[in-house]
Write a structure and sequence with these properties.
Blueprint (H helix, E strand, L loop, with lengths): L3 E8 L3 H13 L5 E4 L16 E2 L10 H20 L3 E2 L3 E5 L5 H14 L5 E3 L1 H7 L7 E5 L3 E3 L1 H14 L3 E3 L6 E5 L2 E6 L2 E10 L5 H7 L7 E12 L1 H4 L5 E4 L11 E4 L5 E4 L3 E2 L13 H9 L2 H21 L1 H11 L8 E13 L10 E5 L2 E6 L4 H15 L18
Parallel strand pairs: 1-2, 1-12, 2-9, 5-14, 12-20
Antiparallel strand pairs: 3-8, 4-8, 5-7, 6-7, 10-11, 11-12, 13-16, 13-17, 13-18, 15-16, 19-20
Helix pairs in contact: 1-5, 1-11, 2-11, 9-10
The structure holds flavin-adenine dinucleotide.
């Protein structure tokens, strides 16, 4: 097998992998770069199955990577979308306390928003909420005008087109199954082809820990798939809900709860819940994979996960299987929702890293390997933050500009 040679191979053509290839290529136009994805098209997994929200940065712990990169990435993403004429809807968001006991958490979110630099957030009391959006139920809300919606698959496709035009090999149908260390980098094999790379960035999403492991980096965290089911809501509700409507999230969890989301296609979605999936790409209810079950059985975090989040897991599982339970979640925000408002059901699967003690990893995680960088936790808001994550990965890989930069001309780890 004669291997093609690249300076850099990025594994995974989701929005994070594509943005990373762009950032590194921008710093080093003299490098040969490939982005390889196992699927026949780019953005086939999380990037193509999410809520399409450009987050404002309200939720995240001040000082965390999520907080910083969400704000930075959001600005870069919106600038790219404007330049490339990608559809964006500046719809705004309401975070609604469904009862007075949630007002304290709402207050904490308001403080976080201020600390994170999210301007123009406004607190609404019951009367102001009713004026702002008739039909929504709550004891108070935060109005976040800067939240937007976007077409993430279109962003991924445009990134891929721009990369290809700049000479980057964006190769779909190219799984990475095996990786061997060579004197000057890596030999990657898969799909009957071999490539050599001086440096590898692993942005494999739901399989990122498996790819890292194949490359000799055994991290204590493992990715656990959480399926999120969406219902497409009726035109009746679509006409009445012009903005994003979110519940107050459980501060112990990295999930935001079932919300109402207008899309750039003019649809209205409810979702996603967060049900533990038994397959990495477990888009269907009841789907399972022997290999994933075996991994879960071996992983020390599984017991802690069950102990800490058992009640939450049972509730989310019920929401997956019972339309009535799902409808009840929607009705805490929108009491007028009816069973016939729930139309087609679709799903996405989140790659959520879990620590060995069973806690859900709350921040983005990048782990350095030998001549490699592994993006091991990039769940929401990583689509919003993708352009800033890309710069961070390029920094972590030590890639500075060929024409000089912070670390001196062309200094890299390679
Ligand atoms: C239900 C849901 C709702 C969400 N809502 C939002 C939101 O509204 N806003 C937001 O900012 N974020 C949201 N997110 C999170 C966001 O979608 C992800 O954080 C983001 O898409 C991660 O991008 P990625 O490139 O890391 O992963 P992915 O898009 O999953 O890309 C990884 C790629 O790696 C490829 N791959 C895997 N293994 C291999 C291999 N061995 N060889 C080659 N290729 C491989 C896969 O085919 C895939 O294309 C949501 C996610 C989900 C699931």
């Amino acid at each position: 097998m004669a291997g093609e040679r690249f300076d850099l191979v990025v594994v995974g053509a989701g929005i994070v992998g594509l943005a990373t290839a762009r950032a590194i290529r921008d710093r080093r136009p003299d490098w040969s770069v490939a982005v390889l994805d196992k699927e026949p098209r780019v953005g086939a997994h999380q990037t193509g199955h999410n809520s399409g929200v450009v987050h404002s940065g309200v939720y995240y712990k001040p000082g965390s990577l999520k907080a910083r990169l969400c704000l930075e990435g959001r600005a870069q993403l919106l600038a790219f979308a404007a330049q490339e004429r990608i559809r964006v809807g500046p719809v705004g968001k309401l975070i609604v306390a469904s009862n007075p006991s949630e007002l304290a958490t709402l207050g904490e979110l308001e403080r976080r928003a201020a600390q994170n630099g999210v301007t123009s957030v406004r607190r609404l009391d019951v009367a102001a909420l009713a004026m702002r959006l008739p039909g929504v139920a709550g004891a108070g809300a935060l109005d976040v005008p800067s939240a937007s919606i976007i077409d993430y698959p279109a962003v991924a496709h445009r990134l891929a087109e721009r990369l290809a035009a700049a000479g980057v090999a964006v190769e779909t149908g190219s799984p990475i199954a095996l990786a061997d260390r060579t004197d000057d980098g890596w030999r990657l094999e898969g799909g009957g082809r071999e490539r050599r790379a001086r440096y590898v960035v692993n942005c494999a999403g739901l399989e990122a820990d498996l790819v890292a492991e194949a490359m000799g980096t055994r991290s204590p965290i493992e990715i656990v798939p959480f399926r999120g089911d969406f219902y497409h809501l009726s035109p009746r509700l679509r006409a009445r809900v012009p903005c994003l409507v979110y519940p107050v999230p459980d501060p112990e969890l990295p999930f935001l709860g079932v919300h109402l989301t207008p899309t750039v296609d003019g649809e209205l979605l409810a979702g996603p819940n967060a049900a533990l999936a038994l397959a990495r790409e477990g888009y269907r209810r009841g789907q399972w994979e022997a290999a994933e079950l075996a991994r879960m059985a071996m992983f020390p975090g599984t017991v802690g996960l069950a102990r800490r989040y058992g009640q939450f897991a049972a509730r989310e599982w019920m929401r997956s299987w019972s339309r009535a339970t799902y409808l009840a979640a929607i009705r805490t925000l929108w009491p007028d929702a009816l069973p016939e408002d729930l139309g087609e059901r679709t799903s996405g699967v989140r790659a959520q890293a879990v620590r060995p003690d069973g806690t859900l990893e709350d921040d983005f995680v990048f782990v350095r390997g030998e001549r490699a960088l592994h993006v091991l936790n990039a769940p929401s808001p990583a689509a919003t933050a993708s352009f800033a994550i890309a710069e961070r990965v390029a920094d972590a890989a030590g890639v500075t500009r060929a024409d000089g930069g912070a670390g001196g001309p062309g200094r890299t780890l390679i």
